[in-house]
Amino acid sequence: MDGKITCSTANATILACKKIVQSFNENIYELALVRTDWTPAYAAELKGRINTALADYLPSESFCRHAERQHYVHELMISALKRVSILRALIKVDFKEDKKFQKYLFEELGYNDYFSDAKNGDYHSLYFLLETLHKNMSSELSDLLTNKSIPLTLIQNLTDFDNQLHEFKACFDLINTSDHLTEEGKRVINAIFSEIKDICRVATAYYLFDPVKRDQFCFFRVMIGLKKTIPQAN
């Protein structure tokens, strides 16, 4: 069928969405108490839309063909998310007495624009956060951070991540890709991804003190779990 995309990250993203919606369906009677529009009918309809999108736009044969690269990208993104989260926490601790400078740092390094979506599974936002951090991490700013308790190696690792991720930039251009995915395909897949991100935001807050269920709605933890189910390349 015309319009199918072969980017392995797009395939894995929709597979993660499918896994999250499975958990959503299994817990819908409890989660229905959180939002009035979260009903069994809605959960079933969303599950059906994902299955249709997989069948119509994302070819399963690309899972095997790009498995090795796919695993590498996921591990890279997960490691990057961990490190940007640690850097953010260190900035909040080390500059807690200087809120104005702390605010400047979060704006300058891209946290204000991208971190919230990045930690909820948006690959694009994590990519742009790393790109902004790399671009704006001057030697002067790095010195200010390391003069506190922030290790220089943490900052260097994050800029290294940005360099590595550039070779995979095509995989993060799902919204703007026109030559691999039809306009209808882009609309359908991005609408699903947007809905799943919103579900994850609310469900992880609801299951804050239930780590097992919370992880079922943590996009990156679900992505890690995909490694056990995606076929390995020969």
Shape: globular
What count of helical segments does DSSP give? Answer: 13
Calculate the mean pLDDT score and round it: 80
Helix fraction by DSSP (H/I, runs of at least 4): over 70%
Number of strands: 0
C-alpha end-to-end distance = 25 Å
The structure class reads mainly alpha
Name the poorly predicted regions.
1-9, 61-65, 173-179, 230-234
The main sheet comes to: none
Rg over CA atoms: 19 Å
The total tally of domains equals: 2
Query: Can you write the helix and strand succession as a string?
Result: HHHHHHHHHHHHH
Strand content: under 5%
Descriptive key words:
234 residues
Structural summary, described in words:
This protein has two domains: 9-65 and 181-225, no CATH class; 79-169. The protein contains 13 helices and no strands. It has helices at residues 8-26, 28-31, 40-57, 61-65, 67-94, 99-108, 111-119, 123-136, 139-146, 152-165, 183-206, 211-215, 219-226. Helix 1 (8-26) packs antiparallel against helix 3 and helix 7 (111-119) runs antiparallel to helix 8. Mean pLDDT is 80; it is low at 1-9, 61-65, 173-179 and 230-234.
